[in-house]
Design brief:
The protein is an alpha+beta fold. The chain is built from 5 helices and 9 strands.
Length: 285
């Protein structure tokens, strides 16, 4: 059981801290600069993060309690039945992505194990399995409109895309979900992508195939909380919808950019989309 700390309780005065060495000051400044940049990335009320797991659990193998997802308190509200979700273990001696010693913000855990598993009853999309779990960039780019594939692909190349892990599925109600994790060399690269290279004011720079107009989802999520180190951009297809209604999310988690796309003929339900985004954020945070 986690012990709660009463920040208002009285405590003896702390001894004066010794001067911070110049090297430590530089490291602190790097972390502070990244925090400032991340704060500037918040885009409308829909750019939200969730803290129920991220701020309390260590980065090792951790169960993510699906019943704690904000706004998803009952089984009859449209939630999907995901299997028990755990973070993969870190290689021996490797820090977590947000550890102070990990200045580049690298995810050392196997990226393929950080992709959210499909819910029970869903049919897997074999096209997103890739080779040994790694997806070619051209398969990811096929998610986007033809005119945007080349410039978006060049942007990823210019920013040193390392590899892509992905998973997709279709649930019995016809909702199609695609999750892509794009890993870069450092967290700074992902910060800069979300700071303006992928977003233009209240819209996304690169259009998805079949849904050319995406805008910020001003309704936001049911509850604003936080997974430390995860930045989020939520977008919804503008009406009138195309053949399918599309919802999209960009998640910036240290060196990894997650792209989540969910679509359905008629209306893509909000609760399963929110649930998917929250759980994927918790895996990366």
């Amino acid at each position: 059981m986690t012990e709660l700390i009463d920040h208002q309780a009285s405590a003896p005065p702390l001894p004066e801290a010794p001067p911070t060495p110049p090297e430590a000051q530089a490291q602190t400044k790097v972390k502070k600069d990244r925090r400032v940049l991340r704060a500037a990335l918040r885009w409308t009320a829909a750019v939200v993060v969730f803290a129920a797991i991220g701020t309390a659990a260590a980065y090792g193998v951790t169960r993510l309690d699906r019943t704690d997802v904000p706004g998803l308190a009952t089984a009859s509200d449209g939630r999907w039945d995901y299997p028990e979700i755990t973070r993969p273990p870190l290689p021996a001696g490797s820090p977590g992505p947000s550890d102070r010693s990990n200045r580049a913000g690298v995810h050392y855990a196997d990226l393929r194990e950080l992709v959210l598993p499909a819910p029970k009853g869903a049919k897997a999309d074999p096209a997103l399995r890739g080779t040994d779990g790694w997806l070619p960039a051209k398969t990811f780019l096929a998610e986007y409109a033809k005119d945007d594939r080349e410039p978006f692909g060049q942007l990823l190349t210019d920013n040193g895309l390392r590899h892509i892990a992905a998973r997709g599925w279709t649930t019995p109600d016809g909702t199609r979900t695609r999750i892509y994790l794009l890993q870069f060399s450092t967290a700074v690269v992902v910060d800069e992508l979300l700071a303006g290279k992928l977003i233009s004011y209240d819209s996304l720079r690169y259009a998805l195939r079949g849904s050319p107009e995406m805008s910020g989802d001003d309704d936001g999520f049911p509850m604003v909380s936080e997974v430390e180190g995860v930045e989020r951009v939520i977008a919804d297809e503008a009406k009138p919808y195309g053949a399918e209604h599309v919802r999209q999310a960009y998640l910036g988690a240290d060196d990894t950019l997650a792209v989540i796309v969910q679509s359905r003929e008629g209306t893509a339900k909000k609760v399963p989309f929110q649930q998917t985004v929250v759980l994927q954020s918790q895996l990366l945070g």
